[in-house]
Design goal:
The protein is an alpha/beta fold. The chain has 13 helices and 17 strands. The chain has 2 domains: 111 residues, Aspartate Aminotransferase, domain 1 (Alpha-Beta Complex), CATH 3.90.1150; 241 residues, Type I PLP-dependent aspartate aminotransferase-like (Major domain) (Aspartate Aminotransferase, domain 2, 3-Layer(aba) Sandwich), CATH 3.40.640. The longest helix has 19 residues.
């Protein structure tokens, strides 16, 4: 590792020189089946021909003009995202954290502009992860992310996931919104149940506040539907999206209803790079694939198959005790060390990523087939045997 880099990452000592589909190839010749997907990002796999062509074609035209001007692929992407969601409006940025920040600002100015400036607080959920900015680590509320960065940004009140009574008690005259991940990713693959989300929706409607979803990791087909909240059928007012929308090209987006978005007027928020022609062209190509007939159904089937195969390994293995999640967003509840299992899986040629609560995440590309699932599960079985021996 270069000493010229800020030492804020505990990097794994491997460097990849190329990728193809569900595989990454290291500079020493080793091949890895990628079930980390750059932390849930490369959902179409590596070097996807359609996405790569879109990037190259746009790169030959124009990269950047700023949002001072119309950007045709941005308009097209916004129209397509609203056509396939609850939303009426879309704001584009560069990352998930920026999308959450914009969502929080949208909620605050919504109330300020409609005569209730005292409404600025947001109810969030224990074990959440919403990004690494000062506001988003305060929203997530995890001590390990907040330590050393005080004073903590004010305005967030936390409740336990799926505790509707606690959420009701937390809403007061200063509350602007409730922010929740339909499926927690970094927090350990925990699902917000239908009754909880429906209760939050009713609570927001009754209190005149906004419901915000963070689908940065669980959205874009990861659970087998385009949006994770389609499973419970409970729509938000605002939603933060990123990660897989660009398949590795930096992009973030905020989807919102007209009522939620209408007060974010010129001068109130912006971005230099957000929505640039390169990112928009890539994201449109990603959406082409994900909206194609059968794509999401395939991801749902592969998720069910992977989960079934992994659950079949629990009985005679002491390394993990539970498989949970939705679609191709799965977590193994480790009985010993998730770091040890991640390292051993890597030795077996399978990449994964840890999460809180001693969980190991498997986030394969949505294009995987049964052969790759067989390969991955064989690697899991070998890794378990090596750890137990």
């Amino acid at each position: 590792m270069s000493t010229a880099l800020v030492q804020n990452y505990a990097r794994i000592d491997v460097a990849f020189e190329r990728g193809e589909g569900a595989y990454l190839y290291a500079d020493d010749g080793r091949r890895f089946l990628d079930f980390a997907s750059g932390i849930g990002v490369t959902s179409l796999g590596h070097a996807h021909p359609r996405v790569t062509k879109a990037l190259k074609d746009q790169a030959d035209k124009v990269w950047h003009v700023s949002n001072l001007y119309n950007i045709d692929p941005q308009t097209r992407l916004a129209e397509r995202l609203t056509a396939h969601s609850f939303a009426d409006r879309v704001f584009f940025c560069n990352s998930g954290a920026e999308a959450v920040e914009a969502s929080l600002k949208m909620a605050r100015i919504h109330h300020s502009s409609t005569g209730a400036p005292e409404r600025y607080r947001v109810v969030t959920v224990v074990n959440a992860f919403h990004g690494r900015t000062l506001a988003t680590i305060a929203a997530g509320g995890q001590a390990k992310h907040l330590d050393g960065f005080g004073p903590r940004v004010d305005g967030f009140d936390q409740v336990a996931l799926n505790d509707l009574d606690a959420a009701k008690a937390a809403v007061g005259p200063e509350t602007a919104a409730i922010l929740v991940e339909p499926v927690q990713g970094e927090g350990g693959i925990h699902i917000a149940d239908k009754a909880f989300l429906a209760g939050l929706r009713a609570l927001c409607d009754a209190a005149g506040i906004l419901l915000i979803y963070d689908e940065i990791q669980c959205g874009m087909g990861r659970t087998g539907k385009l949006w994770a909240h389609e499973w419970p059928g409970v729509a938000p007012d605002i939603m933060a999206v990123a990660k897989a929308l660009g398949n590795g090209f930096p992009i973030g987006a905020v989807l919102a209803t007209e009522a939620a978005a209408e007060t974010l007027v010129p001068g109130k928020h912006g971005t230099t790079f957000g929505g640039n022609p390169l990112a928009m062209s890539v994201a449109n190509a990603v959406l082409d694939e994900m909206l194609a007939d059968g794509f999401l159904a395939h991801a749902e089937r592969m998720g069910a198959l992977l989960r079934q195969r992994l659950e079949g390994l629990i009985g005679n293995k002491r390394v993990f005790s539970e498989v949970r999640g939705s679609g191709l967003m799965l977590g193994l509840q480790c009985t010993d060390s998730n770091l040890e299992l991640m390292a051993e899986l890597r030795e077996q040629g399978l990449l994964s990523v840890v999460a809180d609560g001693n969980v190991l995440r498997l986030l394969p590309p949505l294009i995987i087939g049964e052969a790759e699932i067989d390969e991955a599960c064989a690697a899991v079985e070998r890794a378990c045997a090596a750890i137990e021996s």
